[in-house]
Design goal:
The complex is a heterotetramer, with two copies of chain A and two copies of chain B. Chain A is α+β, with helices and mostly antiparallel strands. Chain A contains two helices and five strands. A five-stranded mixed β-sheet of chain A has the order 2-1-5-3-4. Chain B has a single domain, classed as Aldehyde Oxidoreductase, domain 3, CATH 3.90.1170. In chain B, strand 8 and strand 9 form a beta hairpin. The chains are: A alpha+beta, B alpha+beta. Chains A, D: It holds the Pfam family ThiS.
Chain lengths: ~80, ~150, ~150, ~80
């Protein structure tokens, strides 16, 4: 299945890119997606994730065509 | 109910006055509670001379909308205005504006604070500060507005 | 810190903008919490077409001053503006404006609400409403802003 | 002793005047002052009082030259 991955803020700096277009086997969790996309990086502390612009836990399963975003704690306002 | 992002400087008091004028609720509201967040020139012991406000286009608007709808399900609100700045900002620029118009003050007070606290903890914005020495750093976490600052 | 009574219509957003401009705290405040009370055209089931705001000259100003000082002893406030209308008012006129500028939002939220609740329970003002049928009545008591309206 | 008395709002309507200038014997409480000034009126429910512009209880004693105000619950804001 085909997944679009986005990175924001300090995470974007750490991974060195704004996103990935991945083709991955199902079933796959958000955490596994991170590990496949960043095999050489540890899972960050306080990693937040969204699937299709809704917050998702790291053990949520991703589906074909999903947009998955990874980001650090938010600091707006 | 209006939720919007602004990539340019805005005057919060003018925004509120204009919105109120157009809202068509004259005579109906007895209480307006407003919160305005403004960029300080000092944070965590350092002089700050600029800041970049990153967001997640699409998700940010959706989260803000959901927060306001959640407030509307808990408190009586006649109208709401929420404006959040994005992009490059300078000290003394307005970062966020929340205004709630209600019949009675308890609703307006509670709803405006609920919206701000949820925005701070849930809305996908990230601040990168530029310090006076030229260094840049990401702000790592927001504090809770219900606890006293040390 | 400014406390004043106004016997004429005032624009709360303009008052805040002017006060903020003159306050000399640009870059220092991160949080502004504002409450504006406005006259509704409806109260306790009746249409209201006018209201007289009586006060006790001297004591009213002193009580307001004390309330703001008490807030300042409990929360960090960089500046405060409190304006209360007196005399004959019409629906949609601003009755009261409280604005608090602080470094952090918890202080601004808490202090502005404290000032409003204390003003409502302690400051000597009395409202006499003129109903649509021409009758006049004194408003007998203020409700608490911390409890939900039924 | 000489006491200035003020009435506000609905209380002013009830007593039919805005104030009194009274000469009364000491010692005298706020409540006794009300009763001397308004012998034909019952003490109102929820009567509030101030001595020299500070809130005072009904059993506070008044002093020569005091300004004593009587008023109903406040309804500002």
């Amino acid at each position: 299945m085909s997944i679009k991955v986005l990175y924001f803020a300090s995470l974007k700096d750490q991974v060195g890119r704004a996103g990935d277009e991945l083709v991955v086997p199902a079933p796959l969790s958000v955490l596994e997606l991170w590990q496949q996309a960043n095999p050489d990086l540890p899972v960050p502390n306080a990693l937040l994730a969204a699937i299709n612009m809704n917050y998702a836990s790291l053990d949520s399963l991703v589906s074909d065509g999903d947009e998955v975003a990874f980001f650090p704690p938010v600091t707006g306002g | 109910m209006t939720v919007k992002l602004s990539d340019a400087v805005f005057d919060p008091w003018q925004e509120i006055a204009d919105h109120q004028q157009a809202a068509g609720i004259a005579g109906k509201y007895g209480a307006t509670a407003v919160f305005v967040g403004t960029m300080r020139d000092f944070n965590q012991g350092d002089s700050v001379c600029g800041m970049y406000l990153e967001h997640y286009p699409g998700m940010t608007e959706r989260q803000l909308q959901q927060i306001v709808e959640q407030a509307a399900s808990q408190w009586q609100m006649l109208d709401t205005l929420l404006v959040h700045r994005v992009g490059q900002v300078e000290p003394n620029d307005t970062l966020v504006l929340v205004a709630v118009w209600s019949e009675h003050r308890g609703d307006a007070f509670d709803a405006s604070r609920f919206i701000m606290e949820n925005l701070k903890s849930r809305a996908p914005f990230w601040k990168r500060e530029t310090l006076a020495n030229g260094k840049q750093r990401w702000v790592e976490t927001n504090s809770s507005g219900y606890k006293r600052q040390s």
